[in-house]
Design goal:
The chain is mainly beta. About 10% of the residues lie in helices and about 45% in strands. The protein contains one helix and ten strands; from the N terminus they run αββββββββββ. The protein is globular, with a radius of gyration of 20 Å.
């Protein structure tokens, strides 16, 4: 009986380890993509890890502010079924997102949170990877009341870094007003 209990205990430990084998670990500090996740989980694969970035936003007078240094970390979460990111900025304004691909709608849904604007309901963007860019949208009116979107662009995505652009666009994207730019270089792993 003791041998049966020991065998069952060992089997339960093996199952528990296998059940969470895609989570961040000492061997894989940013986790791994789960092979049972939608194939689109690979859209963010080049971003997984830590990047050193320069973030530039607009001042109230619409000029570009001085660059703000930040680190941007991407990792797999929920046992490799989703992606989470977090930024740590030199100016003390930190943020993050949880990114899930929902196969039924064939879209990414990105839920954003920030230390500078805590909220009870997270804002969400949705979109896809097209032509090497990850493009996400959220409805947002312009200051003059014109309908449009805040559009997020991940582009120039390479293994050694990427660029990011946040811009307001009207509904047919004939008007674009960039408000935030980020350039990132992948940190070398030690």
């Amino acid at each position: 009986m003791k041998q049966l209990v020991t065998s069952l205990f060992l089997l339960a430990q093996i199952i528990a380890v296998a059940q969470y084998s895609y989570e961040p670990s000492q061997e894989h500090p940013f986790g791994l993509p789960n092979p049972n996740a939608p194939k689109e989980i690979q859209d963010f694969a080049p971003l997984i890890g830590i990047c050193d970035c320069l973030s530039i936003t607009r001042n109230k007078d619409q000029t570009w502010a001085a660059p703000n240094k930040m680190s941007w970390k991407f990792k797999y979460i929920m046992n490799g079924m989703a992606v989470q990111d977090e930024t740590l900025k030199e100016d003390g304004k930190h943020s993050g997102s949880i990114r899930q691909f929902i196969a039924d709608s064939s879209k990414w849904y990105v839920h954003y949170y920030s230390s500078s604007a805590p909220t009870t309901v997270l804002s969400a963007w949705e979109g896809n990877k097209k032509e090497g860019k990850i493009i996400l949208y959220r409805k947002q009116k312009a200051p003059n009341g014109m309908d449009g979107f805040y559009k997020i662009n991940f582009y120039d995505i390479k293994e050694n870094g990427f660029k990011w652009l946040g811009e307001w666009v009207n509904t047919n994207e004939s008007i674009s007003f960039p408000t935030w730019k980020i350039e990132c270089t992948k940190r070398k792993e030690k």
